[in-house]
């Protein structure tokens, strides 16, 4: 089937995973810049100071900073209608709380937006994508400090005013619900480094509240600067199935859906904390400190649309004898009906249809899939070709299910495949885990000439966009 006129086909990236130039033209360090490389079996480390001789993947990444014209030209060749990217906050405010913005950083994004608009590609901008300025981590322990709300609001006011005639679509925080995940979420999503003796759960949920308030303020501010702005939330959707029809398994799957998926979107879409969240806080001794106007701010700053990432589904059970498998943010248990990626993520296209139906039934606002893709090991053949049929199969199967959800009445705005050009993996820091339609010559150790090369999937996706989703062969 064809998608509706104006459907936003495109690709998605994040500044810290592909931009590079981490300390050029006045940019300050971000939390991502302090994370070492890793592998599927060796976790990334957070270093409070940079270690000599240690590899930090974000420092160079794939150097979009110096290749943006070449890369955007390739996106245009595929026919992108939109390109999801993020602004590196510390490129605009190097310490996060500077009195004046960095003009060189602002000018860089002017250049990028102008290049996109030259090809009629609509920018979709994530304001904060897993990279809090490290200066705010040192000064306030990241989002655990209420002061960061004002720093973020100032940042938003700066970029909204600067780009009000170039950018229409904005996302306030990437995968904001990662702060519901122990350990991983604190630093990645909140820029928090817990000290010995800290209540990590309290820090995470207080930081999450601060982000809710900041998001709501950004929505109100953005609409006042340009009423045509469309500002959305972004959730890492973790689709959960009960392993059995044991009511305990079913309730556990519902609990995880509420806590890790619905808590954040309920606040951002509906404007208030749901009852299950308040009960969870009570049962776990979490006390959310609110200022007197916070509840009013949340009600008045609801988002215009709901966007999310979807890669896989999980199986949930109360039987802890099962072996866990890995996943995006949260793992689960093995689903015998599904195949898995090279990194153990269970491939479930029908889970995307279920998720779209579930989200739209709950909120009845426009929805957008802003991350979906397959991380795999790609091989360059002797003739230079890269035959990633496995990626084409993955994407085709998910787009088919997406179209089935649209037939059910889901108001779907667009689809931006994750990592449209190979980039650094957020979870592992690898280049080996490739997602892109475009191959970048760089390995896990940072070696390579950065040359760009199209894969078989590049030409397939071009046909998908040309046919508005009708030609998936």
Automatic annotation (TrEMBL):
Which GO cellular component terms, listed alphabetically, does the Swiss-Prot or TrEMBL entry include?
cytosol
Name the Enzyme Commission number(s) assigned to this protein.
Answer: 3.2.1.86
Q: What are the entry keywords?
A: Glycosidase, Hydrolase
Say which enzyme class the record assigns.
hydrolase
Origin superkingdom: Bacteria
What is one Gene Ontology biological process annotated in the Swiss-Prot or TrEMBL record? carbohydrate catabolic process
Q: Which GO terms describe its molecular function?
A: 6-phospho-beta-glucosidase activity
What Gene3D superfamilies does the record tag this protein with?
A: Glycosidases
Region forming the signal peptide = none
Similarity annotation: Belongs to the glycosyl hydrolase 1 family.
What this protein is called in its record is Aryl-phospho-beta-D-glucosidase BglH
Organism of derivation: Clostridium felsineum
């Amino acid at each position: 089937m064809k998608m509706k006129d104006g459907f936003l086909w495109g690709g998605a990236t994040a500044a810290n995973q592909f931009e590079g130039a981490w300390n050029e033209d006045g940019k300050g360090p971000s939390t991502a810049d302090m994370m070492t490389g890793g592998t599927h079996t060796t976790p990334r480390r957070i270093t409070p100071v940079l270690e000599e001789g240690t590899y930090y993947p974000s420092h160079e990444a794939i150097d979009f900073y110096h290749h943006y014209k070449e890369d955007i030209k390739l996106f245009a060749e595929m026919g992108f209608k939109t390109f999801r990217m993020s602004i590196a906050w510390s490129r605009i405010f190097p310490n996060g709380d500077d009195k004046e913005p960095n003009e060189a950083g602002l000018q860089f994004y002017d250049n990028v937006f102008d290049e996109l608009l030259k090809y009629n590609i609509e920018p979709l901008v994530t304001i904060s994508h897993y990279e809090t300025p490290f200066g705010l981590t040192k000064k306030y322990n990241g989002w655990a400090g209420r002061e960061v709300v004002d720093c973020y609001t100032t940042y938003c006011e700066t970029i909204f005013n600067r780009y009000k005639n170039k950018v229409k679509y904005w996302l306030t925080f990437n995968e904001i619900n990662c702060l519901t995940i122990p350990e991983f979420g604190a630093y990645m999503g909140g820029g928090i480094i817990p000290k010995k003796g800290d209540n990590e759960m309290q820090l995470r949920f207080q930081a999450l509240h601060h982000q809710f308030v900041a998001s709501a303020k950004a929505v109100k501010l953005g609409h006042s600067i340009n009423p045509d702005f469309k500002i959305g939330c972004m959730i890492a959707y973790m689709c959960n199935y009960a392993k059995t029809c044991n009511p305990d398994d079913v309730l556990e799957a519902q609990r995880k859906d509420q806590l890790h998926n619905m808590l954040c979107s309920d606040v951002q879409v509906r404007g208030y904390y749901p009852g299950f969240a308040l009960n969870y806080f009570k049962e776990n001794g979490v006390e959310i400190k609110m200022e007197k106007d916070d509840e009013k701010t949340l009600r008045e700053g609801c988002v215009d649309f709901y966007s999310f990432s979807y890669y896989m589904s999980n199986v949930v059970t109360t039987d802890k004898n099962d072996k866990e498998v890995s996943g995006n943010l949260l793992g689960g248990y093995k689903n015998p009906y599904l195949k898995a990626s090279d990194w153990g993520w269970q491939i479930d296209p029908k889970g995307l249809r279920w998720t779209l139906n579930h989200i739209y039934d709950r909120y009845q606002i426009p929805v957008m899939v802003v991350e979906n893709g397959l991380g795999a090991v790609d091989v360059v053949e002797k003739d230079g070709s890269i035959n990633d049929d496995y990626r084409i199969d993955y994407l085709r199967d998910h787009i088919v299910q997406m179209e089935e959800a649209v037939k059910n009445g889901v108001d779907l705005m667009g689809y931006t495949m994750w990592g449209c050009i190979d980039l650094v993996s957020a979870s592992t820091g690898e280049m080996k885990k490739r997602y892109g339609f475009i191959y970048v010559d760089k390995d896990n150790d940072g070696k390579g000439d950065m040359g760009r090369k199209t894969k078989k999937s590049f030409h397939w996706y071009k046909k998908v966009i040309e046919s508005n989703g009708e030609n998936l062969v």
